[in-house]
Amino acid sequence: QLQLVESGGGLVQPGESLRLSCAASGFHLNGYGIAWFRQAPGKEREGVGCISVAGLTDSAEFGKGRFTIHKDTARNTVYLQMNSLKPEDTAVYYCAADGKAFYRCSIDGERMRIWGEGILVTVSS
What we know:
The chain contains no helices and eleven strands.
């Protein structure tokens, strides 16, 4: 069974950091890029950032300078490090696998073939 499981969410205060994990099972990251998405209450889903099989990353404008993505292929896990969190970062965060992201990655949801169930991140004082 091909599966992605997110972890590491929770409640943090503005300005704090949080690291989300996305663990893959049933397939290996050597063949898939991973993208992160989020959906805030009442808003559409948006791409956060991604990492390709080759290790190249891309990030949405709102995350540049604050969010970074890296992976540990030995653990078959991708991480989303989020710093300087703001209340507007509050959302359910999802990771998804893209079978075509060998060099460059994408945050186009239509390309994703496997989705995690999501995890809630709340930024509030």
